[in-house]
Structure formats: C-alpha cells, structure tokens
Design a protein that fits this description.
A hairpin with a 2-residue loop joins β1 and β2 (36-42). 40% of the residues lie in helices and 15% in strands. The chain is α+β, with helices and mostly antiparallel strands. α3 packs antiparallel against α7 (239-249), α5 (159-179) runs antiparallel to α6 and α6 (185-198) packs across α9. The strands form three sheets. It has a five-stranded antiparallel sheet. The protein has a three-stranded antiparallel sheet with strand order 6-8-9, covered by helices on one side. The chain has a two-stranded antiparallel sheet with strand order 7-10. The relative contact order is 0.14. The protein is globular, with a radius of gyration of 20 Å.
Length: 318
C-alpha cells in the first residue's frame, strides 16, 4: 500500500486509541492509499487498516512477502509481522516500517524535467538487479494480477505463454472500447501474443510490476533503501518484463514521458542485457492487460495512457 501523506485526520478517528490499548501509545496516522490507512506505531512498525484486504488474501500475501524478505537484498521490502480482524471484518496488519522517502512524487502530480537524473537511473538499475536475484516461488505463481480472475500461471509452465493468455483474457473484457482508438486492433493483439510466445525462455524471478517512483524509497544520497506496494501486477516471471514496465511507468504523465520511456528502455537494454524487442513486446503486453483496471474507456487517464503506449509500440504495430 503506497503511503500518501494526507490532511489532519478526523478527531473521531478511533484507531490511535485502539493501538494504544495494544501498547503503541504514540500511534499516529501517517498516510492513506486506495487500500486503506497507515499508522506509524514506533518501534520500527506500522499498522495498515485495510478498507477491504490484500488483493491476494492475507496468507498468500504474507507468504509472498516472506519469500522476498528471505533474500539478502540491498533494500528493504514489506513483511507482515502480525494481523488481526476487528469488528465489521476490518483487517489490520502490523508490518515493519520501511526506511527512506519516495524517490519522486507521482508524475500525475509533478512534472519531471527532461534530463533523467543519473542517480534515478542508478537507483532503478539497483532495484531491478535486486528483484531479479530473487527466484520466483510457488506462492508468487499463485497470484492473480489485478483485473484478471485467475492466477496468472494456472495451466502454464512458461511466463511468456501465461502472459499471452492474459492478453487474450484482458482484451475479451473491454477490448472493443480499446479498439476504437487503435486501427488494425485485432491484428495488433495477435502480433503481440505471437511475439510473447516466441520469446526465449528466461529465468523466473520475483516481479513487483509497479515500480513507479513513489514505490521506491531512497536515502539522502538517492540510493534505494526500500521497495513497497507489491500487489498490482506482482507475480513470478521474466525479469525483462519488470524492466520493460519500469521504463514505461517511471514517468507516465509528464511532458517528457515518451522521451523518458525511450531513454530508460535503452538504458535497461544496455546495462541489463535485455533485447530491445523483448522489452517492446512486454510494454505492449502491459498496456493490453492493464488498460481497464481503473476505467473501461477513455474517460480514465490510465486507459488513455495505454492507448498512447500502443499507438507507438513497434511490436503492436509491426
């Protein structure tokens, strides 16, 4: 859950008193996200009061977090230490507090300069290398990416084939609305699916799937010290998919977004050894599988962003 600082909470907020009853007398509300509210407890802990619950369910989410935390990474990742259910079925998880501050504000709320900061590129490379070193686990393979109705890997033994099948399911949902904006849409979908199935086998590693700047915390020198907010597109898969998506989402809405995506795609291809056409195929797949998760038509900003990604994607338009 991304922590977004917010206004002074209501005086009727009952949670600080409830946490005080558990011994956390200094509990304070420190932010909120789509999924709920976050409280700092001190002693290196935070509490998350969920508005619903982890998309994957508590126990599977806990296992995925533990699988990642079991590896010695150069940055911290979430870990659920305890959980309890309150009246009305409200879930509260107690997690370790993650260090650092967000790399940047989201590009929907702050314009990025044209020049890509060297320290940001280095930080992204460090996170990508770290996550690529974590083997994909059975728990990760059981995850469902948001917008879909089944675990990504169900019925598949290759990530690339599983992703091609996900593209087909996603297009079945609201593909007609997407196709209105994209000439030769059906053929573009098939070109993308064929490109995915044709990709060579690759190591299967932990995939975060949403490495936007607020989900990477850095220290005062700009080094990554924590990665948070797993769940949107978290799975096990080809580390090149993580790199491709990260290049596309680092700056989604700024005035130089297209240039930044191209620059980061080149950087990751060069530094991490990924074929540019592989990254391009994965970027098309990401747009085709997430276009409707916030809204099924062009009244939604993410939908419009996906349309623009596909309009200039060399695999989709080959």
């Amino acid at each position: 859950m991304e922590i977004i600082p917010n206004e002074e909470p209501s005086r009727a907020d009952p949670w600080p008193a409830r946490f005080a009853d558990r011994g956390y007398t200094g509990a304070r509300r420190i932010g909120a996200g789509v999924e709920g509210v976050v409280y700092g407890l001190g002693e290196g802990r935070v509490a998350k009061v969920w508005s619903g619950g982890p998309p994957a369910g508590l126990e599977l989410t806990r296992q995925v977090y533990a699988d990642i935390a079991a590896h010695a990474l150069p940055f911290s990742t979430p870990e659920i230490l305890d959980a309890e259910e309150h009246e009305g079925g409200v879930l509260v998880t107690y997690e370790r507090e993650l260090p650092g501050v967000p790399m940047r504000a989201d590009s929907a709320h702050a314009d990025y300069d044209r020049e890509l900061p060297v320290q940001d590129g280095d930080a992204l490379l460090g996170v990508l290398r770290g996550l690529a070193s974590v083997p994909g686990t059975e728990a990760m393979r059981r995850l469902t990416v948001q917008g879909d109705d089944r675990p990504l890997w169900r019925g598949h033994d290759r990530f690339q084939n599983a992703l091609a099948a996900l593209v087909a399911r996603a297009v079945e949902r609201h593909g007609a609305a997407l196709g209105v904006h994209l000439p030769d849409f059906d053929a573009g979908v098939e070109r993308t699916r064929e490109a995915l199935r044709s990709l060579p086998d690759a190591p299967v590693a932990a995939i975060h799937g949403d490495l936007v700047p607020p989900n990477i915390h850095v220290d005062t020198a700009g080094r990554p010290v924590a990665v948070l907010d797993f769940g949107f597109c978290t799975t096990a898969g080809d580390p090149a998919f993580e790199a491709a998506v990260t290049a596309a989402v680092w700056d989604m809405y700024g005035p130089h977004a297209e240039e930044h995506t191209a620059e980061l795609t080149r950087l990751f291809a060069h530094e991490l050894g990924y074929a540019p056409e592989t990254l391009t195929a994965y970027q098309a797949a990401y747009a085709l599988t997430t276009y409707d998760v916030f809204g099924p038509d062009d009244s939604d900003g993410h939908f419009r962003w996906c349309v623009e990604q596909l309009r200039r994607n060399a695999v989709f338009n080959a």
